[in-house]
Amino acid sequence: QVHLVESGGGLVQSGGSLRLSCAPSASIHSFNTVAWYRQTPGKARDLVAQLRFGVFETDDRTNYADFVNGRFTISRDNAKSTVYLQMSSLKPEDTAVYYCNADQLVSGVRYEYWGQGTQVTVSA
């Protein structure tokens, strides 16, 4: 069983920055993708950013939701086996619980994992 440990959430003023971290219990090289989603009460969980691993880091592919609009960056640190979501120019509407998601293919079977979520609150 793989666990995803998130950290870095908190309270920040509008226009501020936060960096979220996702540290899987397995090497990040064992995953196909790692992504960040967010959810507010009563709403569906939305994709924020996705990192699809290439053979080499230079081959990685990233995908962002339209609402990110260049404000967030998803990246990986191989040495720390951690994926980050750097968020800048935060707005009150970015307030949500942010979840790390990862998937891996093992012997032809796809496994998907979720973290416990970390709260991000942006004050006006």
Explain what the structure shows:
- The strands form two sheets. Strands 2, 4, 5, 6, 9, 10 and 11 form a seven-stranded mixed beta sheet that branches.
- The mean pLDDT is 95.
- The chain is an all-beta fold.
- It is 0% helix and 55% strand.
**What's the helical proportion of residues?**
under 10%
Q: Can you give the mean pLDDT? A: 95
Number of beta strands: 11
Number of helices: 0
Biggest sheet, open or closed, and with what strands and sense? 7 strands, mixed
**Alpha-beta classification:** mainly beta
Strand content: over 45%
Give the distance, in angstroms, between the N- and C-terminal Cα atoms: 40 Å
Q: Indicate the low-confidence ranges by residue numbers.
A: none
The string of secondary-structure elements, in order, is EEEEEEEEEEE
Shape verdict: globular
Rg, Cα atoms, Å: 14 Å
